[in-house]
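Lab notebook, bench 4. Still working through the backlog of constructs that have no structural model yet. Next entry is a single chain of 454 residues. Request: give me the structure tokens for it.
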Amino acid sequence: MVLAACVLASSMAFIDGTALPVALPRLRADFGADLASVQWVLNGYMLALASLTLIGGALADVYGKARMLRLGCVLFGLASAACALAPSPAWLIAARVAQGAAAAIVTPASLALIGATYPRAERNRAIGLWAAASALTTAGGPVLGGWLTETFGWPSVFWINPPLALVTVGILLVFAPKDERIHRRFDVIGAAILASAIGALAWALSQIGPRGARAAADATAQPRTVLAIVAGLGIVGLALYAFWARISKHPMTPPRLVENHAFLGLNVATLMIYAGVSIIFFLLPFELIDRRALSSTDAGLTFLPFTLGVGLLSGVFGGLADKIGARTMLIAGPAGAALAYVWMALGQEEPLMLSVIAPMTLLGLSFAVLVAPLTASVLSSVDQTDEGLASGVNNAASRIAQLAGVALAAGVASFESGYEVGLAVAAVTSIGGALTTAITPTPAAAKAGGSGEA
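Model written out:
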């Protein structure tokens, strides 16, 4: 029952991030908003989640895993209701930020509670079930989001969360074991610095392209200067965070992790790979609905090959990685994803089956090859005492990548050939991920059956 509660809790956070993109064209039309505003409906959530995930893990240790998971579910349910009732884009973005902050508690607390509940001999199997369920709900988000939007409207995407939150809280109140707390301080200053830096970079990325430049020109005579200043502030913020992590007594990311070349390389690869897939997840619904005139339900169904590939084949390829080694899988996965992006770009004028369905099948297969070995290699690249922290850092890296990918996608979409440009950028980042894993010392003891992030 505890495992079921943790699956329900984390599924709310995962599915919300992938169900919403399919609803964005309808949402954008209802509000009369531009792409630069709409992308912050996604990025407000991603920003809070990426910057606060490690803080959420520390709160679970300090105040109790089950207690913080219950609190996170209640906050997530309330924020979801606020999203569904939003009367304006500004309200929706603010509610999405609150949702992301709640998800930053829910996601690490759910996995930590599983670790605290199950004995070590049963822990990997329990985490594997949690990971499989999370992968299926994450990948199935576009299909569900499309059907809900088409049938009930875009607010229905958010109304599915409050009932799930109440059920989860009820299960935890009855079945969760007594919390064991440890004394640990959490780095609020570091989180604030990181959130500010990422937000500045994301805004600068969203202004790429003719529309962004014109919008900036309305407010200032030197838009390029403004963009350069904001981007520079973001880079300085990242450098300041790196400095703070070295002098802080309780940093979110201890320097020893940065000095671990295998861990660092695998997280850089995570950034590149997930930035690429985030670009296509943002651009494809607009291509399908606005240009090809598909319904929201049909647009969501085009993601079904990706859904089935990731949800059903990740475990199979995880077992294969045990036999042939993780390095081959870590190169083949992102390389296959890059090929899928190029395929979609070159076949834009072809029928739907050839230009979207077939390459999405390849993309799902590629991520099924990639997900389990990547996460398992990250965990096995650190000592056992750092596995929880390593999982948090890798999860934050994937969220930061999604944040940057969506912002970049919104920017390049303003070009006349924005869809093709976005796919080309996605292909380049994926190839960069493959090359990074190729030169990274992959741990020999990588466990392909570890927790996954889809």
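Notes after review: DSSP finds 19 helices and no strands in the chain. The CA atoms of residues 271 and 398 lie 6 Å apart. Flag for follow-up if needed.
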